[in-house]
Amino acid sequence: MRREILAFNDSLSHFKTLNTAVLAISTDSQFSHYAWATQPRKEGGLGPDLKLPLIADRNMNISRDYGVLLEEEGIALRGLFLVDPKGILRQITVNDLPVGRSVDETIRLIKAFQFTDEHGEVCPANWTEGSKTMKPDPKGSLEYFESVSANGHVNGNGTDKKRPRV
Fold it and tell me: Where is the composition biased (Polar residues) (predicted)?
């Protein structure tokens, strides 16, 4: 979890450019957070330059409400929740304890939601900023599918390119 907190912390300026606030919530106390945040990174802490807000969920209500609490253990799974400016939950990612979350994937999802909100188009699988999107109607979908090959790569002229036989 330490590495994740540092990764999100180190990307806060990027999140800010996306008009996105990032919070870290754990079932640890504010005293644990303080001790961890004041310990230097080279000694296993988060370092005094930590800017990511750490929220103590000691009563475990937030973790319980978001469905990530392991009641018997009193700990929360690794959850990530994207909530838009209207307060609508747009994405839920819950990982088992040994698997961390990806800052890059989180940023990709935020950009995709912002793009669809602004343009009303669909971001297909593996979409990245600047990639082809499709209009959410039969004609727009057909145009999109005609412009990608069977493996999902966009062709320059909108048709599948023939591969030479080997």
Answer: 148-158
